[in-house]
């Protein structure tokens, strides 16, 4: 996310506000575009602007989320969750302790899923919202070791991270499981992704601002995705993070698919144990073309991981 700055970004802000909020009416709040207490973020997917958020900064370390929206062509893909987390993280680092929202009935479950509870809005300007909305909020607190609770998040890899990813994949504990043709296919696919010419998506997992894991997803038919992942930062190995990381990643970014497929080597017992704890089940065995040794085909049904979720414009 970036603060709207260029003409293109402000044009996107105006379009998204008009299309999704003000319709045929004139936008009465364009004065906020130049006000120091109003922050306007745009959300990029590669070079395309697909989202917009409007934050208002209040006294006493409080802030209000006035608008957050993902363009309809990119909804139900986890971008709304990612955008919200980035807004929270930015506010936290600016010293804000609470984020308040006047939620519509349609978006209420979305926010509840992300830790929001009913909380007085108390607009210092005395603005009264829609009486049908519910006042909710979230405390952006820190845990006992001084790190934000909203620490783990996932973003698509950027071309500027090419060197980091290459160095990760060259580590001994990674090379044991990805090498030869499999490694070369991954590196070739990564370049195609950076060029916008791949259906496969390459992700970085972060703990706060620290990149620590590499994930790869690819659509498999209409209702499934494949998953590969590696915890790459040595400081994060053996910490018991893998299960929660996989669950959070899939819930936030792939709640729209029916099943997730993963294919570890049959001898990679540690990874298989982790996947089984997430809920994956072994459904087959095969010899991989990229590395001719036995691999398991494992399957996770998303309905078992996330029985029900609310819908949101975000």
Tell me the number of helical segments per DSSP (H or I, 4 or more residues long): 9
Structural class: alpha+beta
Helicity level, as a percent range?
Answer: 25-40%
Number of β-strand runs? 14
Indicate the mean pLDDT.
Answer: 88
Spatial order of the strands forming the largest sheet: 1-2-3-4-5-7-6
Task: Point out poorly predicted stretches.
Answer: 143-150, 308-314
Task: Give the radius of gyration.
Answer: 21 Å
The N- and C-terminal alpha carbons lie at a distance of 15 Å
Strand content: 25-35%
> Helix and strand string, N-terminal first?
EHEEEHEHEEEHHHEEEHEHEEH
Largest sheet: 7 strands, mixed
Using the alpha-carbon principal axes, give the shape: elongated
Write the layout of secondary structure elements.
Elements: E1 2-3, H1 7-22, E2 38-45, E3 48-57, E4 62-70, H2 79-93, E5 98-103, H3 108-113, E6 117-118, E7 134-139, E8 152-156, H4 162-169, H5 172-175, H6 180-194, E9 201-207, E10 210-220, E11 224-231, H7 242-253, E12 259-262, H8 269-278, E13 281-287, E14 294-301, H9 302-305
Helix pairs in contact: 7-8
Question: How would you concisely characterize the structure shown here?
Answer:
With 314 residues, the chain is α+β, with helices and mostly antiparallel strands. It contains nine helices and 14 strands. It has helices at 7-22, 79-93, 108-113, 162-169, 172-175, 180-194, 242-253, 269-278, 302-305; strands at residues 2-3, 38-45, 48-57, 62-70, 98-103, 117-118, 134-139, 152-156, 201-207, 210-220, 224-231, 259-262, 281-287, 294-301.
């Amino acid at each position: 996310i970036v603060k709207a700055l260029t003409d293109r970004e402000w044009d996107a802000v105006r379009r998204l506000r008009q299309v999704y909020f003000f319709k045929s009416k004139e936008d009465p709040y364009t004065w906020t575009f130049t006000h120091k207490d109003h922050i306007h973020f745009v959300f990029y997917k590669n070079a395309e602007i697909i989202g917009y958020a409007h934050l208002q900064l209040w006294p006493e370390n409080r802030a209000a989320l006035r608008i957050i929206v993902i363009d309809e062509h990119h909804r139900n893909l986890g971008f709304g969750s990612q955008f919200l987390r980035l807004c929270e993280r930015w506010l936290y680092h600016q010293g804000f302790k609470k984020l308040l929202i006047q939620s519509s009935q349609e978006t209420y479950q979305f926010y509840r899923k992300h830790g929001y509870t009913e909380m007085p809005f108390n607009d210092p300007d005395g603005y009264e919202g829609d009486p049908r909305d519910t006042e909710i909020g979230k405390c952006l607190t820190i845990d006992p070791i001084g790190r934000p609770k909203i620490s783990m998040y996932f973003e698509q890899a950027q071309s500027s991270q090419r060197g980091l990813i290459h160095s990760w994949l060259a580590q001994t504990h990674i090379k044991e499981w990805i090498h030869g043709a499999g490694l070369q296919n991954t590196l070739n696919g990564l370049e195609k992704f950076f060029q916008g010419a791949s259906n496969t998506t390459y992700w970085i997992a972060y703990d706060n601002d620290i990149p620590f894991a590499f994930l790869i997803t690819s659509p498999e038919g209409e209702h499934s995705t494949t998953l590969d992942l590696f915890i790459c930062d040595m400081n994060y190995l053996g910490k018991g993070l893998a299960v929660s990381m996989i669950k959070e990643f899939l819930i936030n970014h792939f709640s729209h698919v029916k099943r997730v497929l993963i294919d570890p080597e049959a001898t990679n017992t540690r990874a298989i144990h982790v996947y089984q704890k997430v809920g994956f089940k072994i459904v087959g065995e095969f010899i991989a073309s990229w590395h001719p040794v036995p691999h398991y085909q494992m399957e996770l049904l998303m309905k078992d991981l996330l029985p029900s979720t609310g819908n949101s414009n975000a």
